[in-house]
């Protein structure tokens, strides 16, 4: 199973601030998934070129998460996402999160 988390901090947030929020969210994901976590990659900032990178989009980030197959974990991807939304919402202030998965994940 795979899912992705889009993260948005306030416009004008620094790259370092957003990166810190990503690290907080990564910790929540690692805690929730434990051994079911196969891989997690993060990217902070979007857009082309290095000149405007930190200024124009330093408030945007994404985390891609891969888990062991459904048969090897207790909870469905939907329960995991609900748990993460609740946990991240209570522990990480100053971010807007959007979770997404492809229709083939479970």
Can you tell me about this structure?
The protein is an alpha+beta fold. It is built from three helices and four strands. Strands 2-3-1-4 form a four-stranded antiparallel beta sheet, with helices on one face. α1 (15-33) packs across α3 (77-91). The chain is elongated and about 45 Å long.
Q: Care to give the gist of this entry?
A:
The relative contact order is 0.31. Helix content is 37%, strand content 26%.
Number of helices in the DSSP assignment: 3
Q: Give the overall pLDDT as a whole number.
A: 89
**Helical coverage, percent range:** 25-40%
Shape: elongated
**End-to-end Cα distance:** 5 Å
Low-confidence stretches: 47-55
Class based on secondary structure composition and strand pairing: alpha+beta
Which strand order do you get reading across the main beta sheet? Answer: 2-3-1-4
Element order: H for helix, E for strand:
EHEHEHE
Rg over alpha carbons: 14 Å
Largest sheet: 4 strands, antiparallel
Strand content: 25-35%
* Count of extended strands: 4
Question: What is the secondary structure topology, with strand pairs?
Answer:
Elements (H helix, E strand, L loop, with lengths): L1 E7 L6 H19 L3 E8 L8 H5 L2 E8 L9 H15 L4 E5 L6
Antiparallel strand pairs: 1-3, 1-4, 2-3
Helix pairs in contact: 1-3
Note the main attributes of this structure.
single chain; 106 residues; four-stranded antiparallel sheet; 3 helices
């Amino acid at each position: 199973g795979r899912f992705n988390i889009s993260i948005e901090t306030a416009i004008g947030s620094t790259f370092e601030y957003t990166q810190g929020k990503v690290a907080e969210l990564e910790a929540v994901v690692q805690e929730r998934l434990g051994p079911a976590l196969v891989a997690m990659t993060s990217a902070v900032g979007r857009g082309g070129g290095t000149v405007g990178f930190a200024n124009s989009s330093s408030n945007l980030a994404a985390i891609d998460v891969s888990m062991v197959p459904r048969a090897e974990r207790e909870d469905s991807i939907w329960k995991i996402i609900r748990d993460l939304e609740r946990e991240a919402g209570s522990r990480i202030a100053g971010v807007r999160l959007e979770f997404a998965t492809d229709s083939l994940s479970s």
